[in-house]
Each structure stands twice: as C-alpha cells, then as structure tokens.
Amino acid sequence: MNIFHDEDGLDFSASSESSVRQYRVLVEAFMGYRPQTGGELKCLLEADPQMPMALCMKGYFGKMMGGVKNAERARILLGALQPLKTGQALTCREAWHTDALEAWCLGRLDDAALIWEKILVHYPRDCVALRLVYFNHFYSGDSRRMRDTVARVMSRWEDDHPLYGYLLGMYSFALEECGDLDQAEKIGRRAVEINPEDSWSVHAVAHVLETRQQHEAGIGWLKGLEADWSTVNNFRFHLYWHQCLYHLERGEFGIILDIYDRLLVSDLGSEFYLDVCNAASLLWRLELYGVDVGERWHTLLDVSRGHVQDRDLVFVSLHYLMPLAAAGTHDDVRALVANLEDWENAEETQSTVLRSVGMDVAHAVCLMREGEYDRAYRRLSSARYRTDLIGGSHAQRDLFALLMLDCARRGGHGLEAEGLLAERVALRPHSGWNWLQYSGALQENGRREAAENATRQAELLTCALNPS
Fold it and tell me: Fold for domain 1-125?
C-alpha cells in the first residue's frame, strides 16, 4: 500500500492511484443516489481488495441499508479494518473513519457523529463524512446541526467544484427544516440548476412548497423534473411520496392510489427501509382522510416481518410496526414491541430515543389498531413535544400529529381535539380537510356558528381547487 492524495486534499492508502480515482467515482455515485453505486464499490474492491476506505465504505453501506444481516456484514468489515489500524497501516483520516464505523456498529451514533465532525474540521471536502453526519443529525431530529454542519464547510468549497451542487442541496433542505423557507428555496433551486439529477436538491424545494401548502406548484415542480430525478435509486419513490402529499390535500385520492400501486411499492424486494416508511405513512394518512385502502397493508407484511429484530433507527422500526398492527398480525407485533423494549434498556443512542418518546409512540400505534383511542391519545399527547427526537422531516413526523388528533376525537377528548385542530388550521390554513375536521370538532362541542364558518372556509378551498 502507498499513500495517495486527491484533488480535495484527502489521503488514501491504496495499491495504485487508479484506485483513488475509482473511489471518487464511487463517491459521486453515492452523493447522487445513483443505482450503480453498489456496482462501483464492487469494482473498486475487486481492483483493490485491501483499500481501507473501500472496506470502510462497504461497512458504511451495510449500516445504511439497515437490518440484522447488513449490520453483521458491517461488523465483519470492521473486523478487517481493525488490524490495519492496530498496525498503523491507516492514515489518520482512515483511522477516524474506522472509529466512526465501530461506534456506529455499537449503536453509539452520537460518538460516530463527533468523529465525522472531527474529520470535517481537518478535511472539509470529505463528502462521505459530511453525508453521514448530516443524515445522523437528520435521524436525530436535529435540523440546526444539519444546517450548521454544512455551513461550516461551505467556505472551503469552490463553487465550480463538481460536487458543489450536492452541498447546496444539503444546505437547502436543512434550512427548510429550520424554517428559513425563502433562503431554502433560493439555494435549492440554484442547486437544481447546477445539477437537475440531484434528487436531494429537488426534494429540498419540494419540502418548501409542501410547507407553504403550494400544492399545485409542488406537483408542477416534481413533474417538470421527473425525467431527471426518476433515474436515481429507490429514493425516487420518496419524491413520488411527496407528490402524493400534494394530491392528498387536493383530495385527488385516485391519483394517489395509482402512484402507490404503480410506483411506491414496486420494489419492496430490495428492502430499502424508506420504501416501507413511505408506504405505511401514506396508507395511514389515506385512512385518516376516509379512503378505503383495501388489502394494501398486507403487501407490506413480508418486508416488515423480516425486520422485527432490527436495531437501527427508531423512526424506521415504528414504520415497520404500522403494517403489522394494521393487519392484526399479533405475534409479529408482540415480537417487534418486545425487541423495542429490550433495545430500550441498551446503552445506545437510539435506546435513549425509545425511553424518551419511541415506546410511547409504539404503544400508541398498537392501541389505536385495538380501538383503545383514549389510551393511545394519552401516550401520544405525553410525548408530543419530544417526537422530534425520532428524526425524519417535519413532513414525515406530521403523521404522529395526525394520529394524536384522530385519537383525541375518537377517544372522547372533544375539547382537546378542537384545540389541536385550531392549531392545525392556523399553521395550515389552505387545507380543506383541516377545516372540515375543525368544523366537525366545533359542531360536536356545540359551537354551531363557528362550525358553519369553518365549513364555509372548507368549501371555499374546495371551490378554488375545482372552479367548475
């Protein structure tokens, strides 16, 4: 092994300089969610099977894919790296990456994040460290750290860098999650101009439009760029999920079901965790909107059953729980909840999330499907202002707010339901569904005049969607 340096100032232990160039191709594919990313890594390892950063990337990919089997593969890769570190055959940066992988394998995500941040202090153009710590902050619900991590390195990047657009897209989404919508949209659109195939940047602007409730504009934005972003890996289905959210607010349920059947669940065999997260959360939203989803929950069962023992992210495990509870597969539900309860007592970063909020949400999901809405409401309301810790975006976590609202109404908490809906129409005044639900709650509480006003507001919004 020799030491080589690339144009970003990163050092590599490798058998040849061509391995460093191939690693760069791999990173570009990784940043762009390209379907050939796994193939690029395979080619690199075939050419240079002992290259430390190639081994580390394979371990990282195992952890990113999630699941018990992939976690074991990551530990095997870590085992191959440890002797190199002990023998001081790694550069300082490679040793730090090995330490981060080890922390991740042990469930110490906080420690892994600190190591990736340390790498970025010394190597601000290490895209792998940047992307991994960014998503660690994302699944910790910490949008400020997402934003600040990117902001700290931006001045060390030139705007003509081939990957600069990806950096802007990451910053755009973090700004949106922090509530800076104007700046987020401006930077996100610039990122897409640089690289229309950057699905994360397209996704960042889609979030802005969803937050602003610009549903028609959001549909136009995604459809106008579909030829570019639909070429990426399974992340493309998450963009279709966003399109469904726009159609949901417009009451266009037939379009949603078509997208769901034709696209969202078209590749469940790949077991990419986000596919089930997209599908489960959309099905439950549809049910809340009064749509009969038929047997669609059952198509998610095989994948969800295969992940009852996972210990990756609480956010993901909760979404695997939803189809099991919805379909009434009690043995699987008990197995998954038992795993969460055991995980809750571990000394891992996500165990803290379970103790703080995750178990409350998990039990509420089960209680709702058992018709125990009062008990579910109490669980969700007690955890309400801690759900950020579960991670995901505001749009994804909004499902938990909708579930709590449904529990309040069905569980006999009429005044609380009215208050929650008052909050909701204040935050999302362009949703006819919100106003109809608010009208119903007001009517149930004897506030007839206010209910009539809310109904008129809902009708106005419906007429605006369908002027004919």
Answer: 1.25.40
